[in-house]
Amino acid sequence: MFQIECPYCGKRELTEYSYGGEANLIRPTPVEAEESQAWAGYLFSRTNKRGLHLERWFHVFGCRKWFNVARNTITNEFVDIYLPGEKPQVDEQAKK
Amino acid sequence: MTHHFSAASLLRNAFSGHKNWSQQFRSVEPESKYQAVIVGGGGHGLSAAYHLAREFGITNVAVIEKGWIGGGNTGRNTAMVRSNYLQQDSVKLYDASIKMWESMSQKLNYNVMFSQRGLLHLAHSVSDMQEIGRRAHAINMFGADAELLSPGQVREWLPDINLNCRFPVMGALLQRRGAIARHDAMAWGYARCATELGVDIIQNCEVTGFEINNGQVRSVHTTRGRIETDTVGLAVSGHSTHLADMAGFRLPIETVPLQALVTEPLKPVLKSAVISASIHAYVSQSDKGELVIGGGTDPYVAYSNQGGFDEIETMMTAIKELFPNYSRLRIMRQWAGMVDLTPDRSPIISKTPVRNMYIDGGWGTGGFKTSPIGGLLMAEMMAKDTVPDLAAPFALSRFNTGVLVDEGAASSVAH
Fold first, then answer.
1. Size of interface A-B (CB pairs under 8 A)
2. Cβ contact B240:B250 at 8 Å
3. Complex-level ipTM
4. Residues of B with CB below 8 A from A43's CB?
5. Cα(B394)–Cα(B359) distance, rounded to whole angstroms?
6. CA B138 – CA B213 distance, rounded (Å)
7. Domain ranges in chain A?
8. Are the Cβ atoms of B301 and A37 closer than 8 angstroms?
9. Does residue B1 surpass a pLDDT of 80?
């Protein structure tokens, strides 16, 4: 089990959080969503990244706030933790 | 030439001190061209190779494996075989696999230790009871077997169970044909028969890319050279996304760790496999006597090959509630496998956007039991370029059309 540093509350155990899936998914507008590809992509298509993964976490048993995380999915290392609306401080190269 | 295994050959070799058994399968250097290449030397890949050679007469086949055969998720599961699913398409698919398991030892001349000792799915609430009732009717209607047990019958079936645990056991769904098997034996049995038919098994050989021209694969690049081929089958768990990225298409898959562990060996204590989806317990006893305990999946994408300790705590709490007399058993080994979960928890057995590339993947937590049928269906797609009826509902295109095969509940622990 690992610990996650909530930007509001500090370091807490994983069991206090719930995983919110991949970050930066953009919901298609109703017009775009008419196109089944666009809607299916939003619902189902994920990068499932092996390496640096941008994702959302929810501090469900804490402050109940959402935040973003850049985590290495091989080592489970939290490379960056940032607030919604902010950009991660990670090297663009590392995202590849 | 490999030996035919029989009582006579066992006796004959006993007299020579078991020193003259031949190697069971060859591991070879890759040639520069094969008619068919299968990526992944686990149960599904080896089964596909065997069926390509056996059923469809294509013997110029290479199975490419990054590590050693059966060393991925084929060696990291809980070796359970069942077909107690909800939807017609899945019940038919999984039950076809059970039927193949039933004759596998004879067909492969290899003892896969397939033991139909039954499988009990426990219900702990009124809604659980309604769910298993509905599922039992569905399963029976679609031609597999299932029956409902009362708490008294559960007690008779499993004398050790604690029916009055925190969430009391209110009943159970029993599938008598549910089974456990020996996972390595399946991989080795398929490998042995496939090599005998002329298939090349290439271990320690990782795929690094595909050469694709005009939407068609021409060759596979590997760490041991370039291999030209007419058709490619992908059968890798935990790496499907990685391979699809190389081939230039996206799969609706998320890869998460699924943990299991085994206790020290005991005399027979547990008659059948037991699953409780509500309190997350999953246990069976192997022929060696070890209790094989499975847990839930971690909720986040990870390729770390290890899961969170909180999952172990959850599953052990549930097992101790159900079987208090297991509380002092020592744990010998613990591991995690990387499972490729699809949004509807059903597999992808399909053509892909690359014309001569096929996929048998996304099995989530149900890959072991379906190795025979998954391999057979992919072999048919690779040989004939047509999609068999059993595989048709599991096409990749279902995520665009919305015709999903929802097995979120019946996949038991991965939801």
1. 57
2. no
3. 0.91
4. 343, 399
5. 11
6. 46
7. 3-95
8. no
9. no
